[in-house]
Amino acid sequence: MALPDNDNEGRHEGPVIRDKRRIDPETGELRTPAEAAAAPAPEEPEAAPAAGEPGSGAGTADAAELAEARERVGELTNDLKRVQAEYANYRKRVDRDRLVVREQALSQVLGELLPILDDVGRAREHGELSGGFKSVGESLESLATKLGLKKYAEKGDEFDPNVHEALTLVESPDVTVPTVIEVFQPGYLIGERVLRPARVVVAEGSGDTAETGGGAPAEPEPGDDAGNGDDT
Questions:
Q1: How many angstroms separate the CA atoms of 27 and 18, rounded?
Q2: By CB neighbour count within 10 A (0-12 exposed, 13-18 middle, 19+ buried), where does 164 fall?
Q3: Cα 192 to chain center, whole Å?
Q4: Which terminus of the chain, N or C, has less C-beta within 10 A?
């Protein structure tokens, strides 16, 4: 009688997994304990490689698209910043030009009113600014001041060739710097711009003058025989 080969019987090439589920997943029927023990476990599908793992072509494509999108966002952001800077410069230029045009228009209008303001000033100096003329004159001066017109030049002001026009120059020992001693016609400013220079008389210091008379006679130079009185 041949003996069973114990080396071959009961040997399996791998682990045996039993499906012990009470419900058959294919038929949906209730299994007996013997059928559940004999049924092999279903094979699990292999997990797909995650995106970005080596060997994943989809992950490499996604990374490239993300890099390209970030580069495009950076370009659009720089374009937006450049447009904003250009618009800000444009607004500044427009505002500056608007101020220049306004100042030029005011200068033209107020320049036509200067002779009338001169007449009002002369009438005030001579005591002739009274009645209805006084009210009109003061209203005109107030309006000109409100529009930015500023009158300048008074006696005692230091002479400034940038804003004064010297009609006459006289010497005076009472001043140390060129000084306005009389105003023929006041000047006017609009902001920092001279609309009309003031016409004035300017006094300047006469400086040191040589004293004459009352001084001691000059001593003769060495070797000078003048005034010796010796006849040879």
A1: 18
A2: buried
A3: 21
A4: N
Alpha-carbon span 51 to 55, nearest angstrom? 9
Contact between 59 and 52 under an 8 Å Cβ cutoff? The reply is: yes
Q: CB-side exposure of 153: number of CA atoms within 13 Å?
A: 27
| Domain parsing of the chain, residue ranges | 57-147, 150-207
Is the Cβ–Cβ distance between 171 and 206 less than 8 Å? yes
Distance between CA atoms of residues 178 and 230, nearest Å: 55
Name the DSSP class of 95: H
What is the Cα–Cα distance from 180 to 195, expressed in whole angstroms? 19
Does CATH place domain 150-207 in 2.60.370.10?
Answer: no
CA dist 158 → 113, 151, 196 (Å): 27, 16, 18
Rounded to whole angstroms, the Cα distance separating 63 from 199 reads 80
Give me the tens of pLDDT residue by residue for the chain, a chain 232 residues long. 444 555 554 454 556 566 666 666 677 666 666 655 555 555 555 555 555 455 555 678 888 888 888 888 988 999 999 999 999 999 999 998 988 888 888 888 899 999 999 999 889 888 888 888 889 999 999 999 998 899 999 999 999 999 999 999 999 888 899 999 999 999 999 888 899 999 999 999 875 433 333 344 444 444 444 444 444 3
Nearest alpha-carbon partner for 154 in 198, 204, 210, 93? 198
Strand pairing class (187-190; 164-171): unpaired
Is 195 in contact with 188 (CB distance < 8 Å)?
yes
